Amino acid sequence: MTTTYEPNKVLSNEEFKVVGTRPIRPDGADKVTGRAQYGADYNPADLLYAKVLRSPHAHARIKSINVSKAESLKGVLAVVTGADTIAPKKGESADFGLGPQPMKYLRDNAIATDKVLYQGHAVAAVAAQDVHTAEEAVNLIEVEYEVLEPVLTAPEAMAKTAPILHPDLTTDEFGNSNVADHFQHKMGDIDKGFAEADVIVEREFDTATVHQGYIEPCNVTALWNDDDRIHVWLSTQGPFQYRDALALALDIPQSRVKVTPMEIGGGFGGKFPLYHELAAVLLSRKTRRPVKIVMTRAEVFGGTGPTSGSNVKVKMGATKDGRIVAAKTELRFEAGAYPGSPVGAAGMTSFAAYDIPNVIVDGYDVVVNKPKAGAYRAPGAPNAAFGIEQVIDELSKEIGVDPVEFRLQNCAKEGTRRADGPIHPKVGGIETLEALRDHDHYQSPLTPAKNGGKVGRGVAFGFWFNAGLQSTATISVNGDGTVNLVEGSPDIGGSRASISMQAAEVLGISADEVKPKVADTDSIGFSFGTGGSRTTFATGWAAYEAANDVKSQLIERAATIWGVDPNSVEMEEGVLRSKTDTELSMTFKELSAQLNDTGGPIIGRGSVNPAGVGGAFAANIVDTEIDPETGKVDILRFTMVQDAGKAIHPSYVEGQMQGASVQGIGWALNEEYYYSEKGTIDNSSFLDYRMPTSLDLPMIDTVIVEVANPGHPYGVRGVGEVSLITPQAGIANAITDAVGVRLESMPMKPSVVLDAINNQG
Amino acid sequence: MPATKVHVTTTINGEPVEFLAEPRQSLLEVLRDVVQLTGSKEGCNDGNCGACTVNMDGRIVDSCLVLGVEAEGADIQTVEGIASADGLHPIQQAFLENAALQCGICTPGFLVSSKALLEKEPNPSEERIRMWLAGNLCRCTGYDKIVKAVMAAAKEMAS
To answer: Which residue segment(s) compose the domain that B68 sits in?
Structure first.
């Protein structure tokens, strides 16, 4: 029997009526006609346009700011500087996806007060009648700087002689230094572990600062109304976090801030933090008119939160029979200008895909003169995996065992303890690796070279824990048997579809009979932002709860109409019926038409903070071709395998896997912030910060593995992040397979690959 | 200071449109801020992302690299002009059915480029599609489903 190869396969565990199907997304028509309103598309009456003045220096003290020339330019209505901000109270913090961070740092990052700590750091902003006048005006602001020496990498910033960014940043271990935090996770006896090892590999890796690369620049429109209420429209992943952080930054109650999340053009973790929003609000306070700021692409690179460059040391040991017995890593992460890199998450996930008895993980959070790091899809994990998955590859080669079998033999499973403490619940790591091993790609010979170069194959494996957190949803029933669903999670990649489908499954109606709406912060209960792979999991669950609330009320209403005990009525697949009297039956649609006259409309509510988050595993295979003359690497074939728990809408799960794969390919081969010695960015455009185009890539084949998460009604795990952890190491391993050298720095651009080839012994 | 505005006469999506533009305003700015057609998006404003792609006199251009005053006498089609009173164009329908968008910010540019491709080459290979779309950046999809959607639209339009 011959089987046709399927490029996108779902290894399904359970079939449902709506869940697991591929309906057209509810916001589809707006998105293909240009009608969808993104943040920059919002133009209220009486709008002013603002521009931000940004520091040209990586590290400097602000000695003075003179705004008088800017203020007197015709068409300028207001100027703000750090002097217009409100000093945060001690101890106040806000969380933008990388843990709570002190409000003082968040405020200073939004508008510098005393020092600028990176090129692109906001210093002042101007509101004017049109954007070009605002542009002219910011250039008229005179800032006197005392330029200081910058420091750009974590190892350099940790040196005793390094310039200090924050005179108030101290730890017990390091005193006043650039080290904001040092943590250690420890399990077993590391010395005993290495003593047992027959093979030990030790290497050191460096990775460059990279950006999420969302296509839509950050934007905001803010109105300080005449009742002293503030309304903010923007493209954000976390409207409630913005609301709360703005209220803190302005020292006013949350209830005075309303955030309307507009359609959002990508985020990947980067559209959580406060950037220019504070300036927009302060300008509106001065003018009492709506003020809009849209970043240029250069401002996005220089003035938002990319993810950390890092230095990662890895030492691992295994026995001859293929058991990893010891693993050690030191993670030095650039936090950017203020504390709070993703090193914490990197430390928690670094060896979490494996069952290793003796582990030590040391993490250092180090401030440097770069933009404050933001979250980026499985924050921190790809940096660590780039090193660890290469060392594992090398161990398997030295022992002489297949790299997938080696990972299978050491794979974490239910009951395995992570070095940071938690014990894995039911997880699908083994199933993911087995699907990879059995895949046509892994079973097929190497893809032939297209251009006469050297070809190689690599694999890599990764774990990400995903997030739960709070979500709310309400559902109201329409008279025609449809429902309106209101929720608070900005939809970046089709989540209105995946959330609606879970409600539809409960009510026994079709996906397009649920009309979803992402509401503003006045119109729905608190919902943590869209990030951490949590939206389909947690907001989907809130919708499931709201739908079940509706369902139980429908049952009661039918019982009232029929004059029977509600316990004798059931609702299945959209039909209400008596369990005892076959005469008594009506469809949800028939009942919905009667609701208004039989007791009033029905609404359901759901509010969750789920504990049963399911961690996710991903693994990939990649065939690469290396041009030995130039060092250029081409991707010939790429397959991503991921455990989704249950794919609610498989197309959008595949989309997450494919998009993350390609971000990983870009991170691996091209992308980096290119810094001058002065700490200025030399490549802040899409021409020079080169992200993959369609022409650089093959199709990205996928396998969705479904090992149901027992902590979710439909078995959902998060799917948005884990696929970004493996491609970089997979590609590095493929390059090694092709040309026999290890790549210890990323990006593996032609010059790096060529140097590695030329320097091999 | 703003220079005197220039009167420009064009055709946009089949209808005559007149507008006043400052000489420094790009066609993208004019489309978005003057004519209120916000479907064309600004991703980079320097011709590298393709989110502002429009069809101008039969050629696809980055409207951020064209001045508004250069549109005098031009025939321009934007994403708003792809669907008709009869409904979505097959390329739009194919993008929806193939889940070829996630956040959707790049979608208008991809639709304009894809439509232009299919008008010139009704049955393009994967390689030709990738070549034609190389001027449009997408960060969400990895392009896989976009390429497949264009193939599906070609098939639909041929039938």
So the answer is: 6-81
